[in-house]
Amino acid sequence: MKIVMLGFGAVGQGVARVFSTKRDKIKAKYGLNLNLVAVTDTSGAAVCQEGLDPDLLLETKIKKGKVSEYPEHGVPSVSGVDVMDDVDYDCLIEVTPTNIDDGEPAKTHILKAFNQKKDVVTSNKGPLALCFRELADSAESNGVQFKFEASVGGAMPILNFAHETLAGCDINSVLGILNGTTNYILSRMAKEGTSYEKILQESQELGIAETNPTQDVEGIDAACKVVILANSIMGMDVSYDDVEVRGISGITPESIALAKKDGYLIKLVGEISEDSLEVSPRLVCKGSPFAVDGTLNVATLKTDLADDVTVVGKGAGSVETASAILSDLISIWKSK
Amino acid sequence: MKIVMLGFGAVGQGVARVFSTKRDKIKAKYGLNLNLVAVTDTSGAAVCQEGLDPDLLLETKIKKGKVSEYPEHGVPSVSGVDVMDDVDYDCLIEVTPTNIDDGEPAKTHILKAFNQKKDVVTSNKGPLALCFRELADSAESNGVQFKFEASVGGAMPILNFAHETLAGCDINSVLGILNGTTNYILSRMAKEGTSYEKILQESQELGIAETNPTQDVEGIDAACKVVILANSIMGMDVSYDDVEVRGISGITPESIALAKKDGYLIKLVGEISEDSLEVSPRLVCKGSPFAVDGTLNVATLKTDLADDVTVVGKGAGSVETASAILSDLISIWKSK
């Protein structure tokens, strides 16, 4: 499988790391040859039709900061779109930074790949939250596959779980803790009885919350995932603006203590059902699968036959997210 | 798909119920025609090459107690083995009662189906815990499929999850609460501070624990599931005798209270790793995915790339278990 990867940040580097450690095993187990023929970042690209070395890609990026410095095969200043025109490939991995305003450049990349009759795997929430149906329709009409497990909850593989493992069930609704940063903050507030502001600051110092934490704490990241789950699992046709969103910045230690006294915890929960599309702080029972601490993500699928089924996993992490991309690649390969 | 189902107890009747409610949807969604051509119980069989009516099967069983009383197509005193010789079928659903001594009659049924080049779906822990490798090898050498999601944790679909959804990951170990009855008893002991004996008695009155609770409370049921997970997910070749088993009958309210004081709960946990194959009461952290109450089952897969991934679901229930059988049938159908 000849692969073009656009984007070489945390997720892209995770993919390179995973390719480096697992390539031989995947070849032996599935007969799938993971061959990276081009990788881009903002500096340009590394392109080699015979295959790039993932370790050398990582070394180049770490030492020189640019994939276009890749020995012999570096191409400065070339764009992702140009690379897609110039190389022979089977599958696009789109891992450029998420842009929640217009989904670009990922949207253009993905649609171009479909028109070139190529399969696409992405972790990019932007285009999925803004124009899901357009992308899904284009994939279908071009007869190619579109997989995006990594876009929701990193290593909590909820999409393929719903589609494959629960194939016999109808999914009536989904409830989830879809953002690790807010779960971390709320867990620590509940344990320590400390204020939101103080825990947020410490989370920023630890690198768990970003310097500008708005996307996480105001529920925007979780709302994007709600949109992806609604469209992908529940067959809806909704976008980011359809989600009612309330974040966690108004939660006080007093409200958490009050909930705790009655056996409850406060979590930022996303809900997808016929009647509701929202992200908001909610009470969850101690002893329920939602009472998980730390940066974990969790999603419960309410089904017609199997009742509630829940998946818990790490919501983020470079290699963890890359593992979801690898599973998508294997799934595409197995279906050929 | 022409289906023979051997056994018409709780699980078999759940399958009939699921076929009745979902047959049209499954046909429309996957093109799969679920056609029950024969169903047996201890009384004999109902056989109709054009297809039995699941509702009439259930009605006959409930009113007359015997599927062999099925109007026009009832066949008294015929055995499962004879039925398999006499009818034209594609797939066997084996749901006779679990027998942990020699795995019969399920073992004979399953091996016969393989030799007839038929796929098999089962919920039957007996043969899987006693002679897994023999069965898996026979399926492979006959070029047929062997699926048994329903044998571990009913509606907690851990096997297909590990094989399909986490295709890119190596699974290094599995930890699980694999028995709902013991989880229910321990959860109530922790909440109420009451003795094991009292809660067990109440659980029996509620129908959650059986009159003879040995299989559950002594860890035998969980140990069977440990064997199935070890062989299926970890590629081991072990059987029931290889598992170290300790149940929950020795747990006191005092030990639970002591654990609670330090932020822990006591759960009956099955562990599968290279070094350990055991079922025993263990301390688990509050706030971890293992701190689930009631009859829920949970299993955590420790992976090389995605770190810990956990699935939580109902461990039992007639329709819930049947949903796992249905997912297996769809998976077989999709791979054709």
UniProtKB/TrEMBL annotation, chains A, B:
MF (Gene Ontology): homoserine dehydrogenase activity; NADP binding
EC class of the enzyme, as a word: oxidoreductase
Positions of the Aspartate/homoserine dehydrogenase NAD-binding domain: 7-149
Enzyme Commission number(s) of this protein: 1.1.1.3
Similarity comment text for this entry: Belongs to the homoserine dehydrogenase family.
Catalytic residues (UniProt): 225
Binding site for L-homoserine: 210
Presence of keyword Nucleus: no
Binding positions (NADPH): 125
Taxonomic lineage: Archaea, Methanobacteriati, Methanobacteriota, Methanomada group, Methanobacteria
Pathway the protein contributes to: Amino-acid biosynthesis; L-threonine biosynthesis; L-threonine from L-aspartate: step 3/5; Amino-acid biosynthesis; L-methionine biosynthesis via de novo pathway; L-homoserine from L-aspartate: step 3/3
Protein name: Homoserine dehydrogenase
Positions of transmembrane segments: none
Keyword annotations of the record: Amino-acid biosynthesis, Methionine biosynthesis, NADP, Oxidoreductase, Threonine biosynthesis
Domain Homoserine dehydrogenase catalytic span(s) in chain numbering: 157-330
Keyword NADP carried by entry: yes
Organism: Methanobacterium congolense
GO biological process: methionine biosynthetic process; threonine biosynthetic process
UniProt binding sites for NADP(+): 7-12
